[in-house]
Amino acid sequence: MRIVNLHHGAFVNIFRKLGHDVLSIGTTPDCDVVLKQPLSYKRFLELLENRGMHPDLIFWCDACQTPWVFGIENMPCVTIGYSVDQYMNPWHVPFSAGFDAFFVAQKDYLPLFTASPTDRPATWMPLFCDPGHDQDAGMERDIPISFVGTLDGVANPGRRPFLTAFRRLAPLFLTTGYYVPIFGRSRIVLNQSAAGELNLRLFQGMACGATLLTEETDNGLHDLFTPGVELLTYRRGDAEHAAQRALAALARSDLTTIAQNGRRKTLAKHSIVSRAKVVLAQAALLAAQGAPKTRLARRERVRAEVQKAYAVLATDEALPLPASERQFFLHMAQPC
Is the pTM of this model over 0.70? Predict the structure, then answer.
């Protein structure tokens, strides 16, 4: 299969290892084509032609940034999108109408996408670990509890206060940067989210062999894992309760068993390889069903929804966008 991967490149190497020809386009240095400015539909087509790429699949992977490639809804090949941070990006809902199928990482938000007026399928597909990176090297687990992540992100102002309060009550090693060496030495990995989402750290911590202590939340947590067997939970936002659960867990004789259960389940069912195979199977099914022709036959309805996404980007004051970018999307939201 010939695949054009847009924005986040998490799946690129896996697609290639599974035998597919992939052209990655995005804003990061690891992409085959590194964009310095947004790409119009005309220039997108020219780029593909110059590269000799006639895709069977265009896969848009959420990188928590605004669109940089336009006109995906007009492409004659299968198109699939994957929204990770839909709780931060309400524009993903109308934008998803431009695809033949759409995957949503947070289960509680799925009804917003299944209600699309274009009738394209939307499916829950949680985040994942990457076994190529997220590994247990068998080191001594000399860190009782760790947290590795952004401390002062705009989207999660409650994180630092929570961690500060937790650290007063329990021995927390707190840092930013590369997580694998720390998680590989930790008995417990503490996880905290922005909006109760099932984030990457949840899967990464367990894949690295630590016992995960995460928030009791929805978004399908109990569909994926059994608390007390494969991970541990605490009341969301309650640092005292989290610290109590962590200290009690450190005294448990079965803590290693919980870590092993969590790692086994994560590697078996929640790896990026598993998710990539789901995407590829969906792409093959859509191609067999003639989904691109169906989308193009609904061009006006699809375009109207995509324009709504641009209107949200232009007007949503909660999104940290400069005035010039808002003006650009306001222009894009106008009828052709």
Answer: yes
* Side chain identity, residue 319: L
143 confidence band (pLDDT: 50, 70, 90): very high
- Any residues with CB less than 8 A from the CB of 15 and at least 6 apart, and which? 3, 5, 22, 59, 276, 280
pLDDT of residue 319: 87
Residue pair 215/159 in contact by the 8 Å Cβ criterion = no
- Taking a C-beta distance cutoff of 8 angstroms, is the pair 75, 95 a contact? no
Are the beta carbons of 106 and 86 closer than 8 angstroms? yes
- Listed as own residue / partner, the contacts of 9-12 with beta carbons closer than 8 Å and 24 or more positions apart are 9/61, 10/61, 10/130, 10/272, 11/59, 11/61, 11/272, 11/275, 11/276, 11/279
Q: Which domains does the chain have, with CATH numbers?
A: 2-128+272-332 (3.40.50), 143-269 (3.40.50.2000)
**Residue 4: pLDDT over 70:** yes
Per-residue pLDDT at 155: 87
Note the pLDDT of residue 336.
66
Provide the pLDDT for residue 335.
Answer: 82
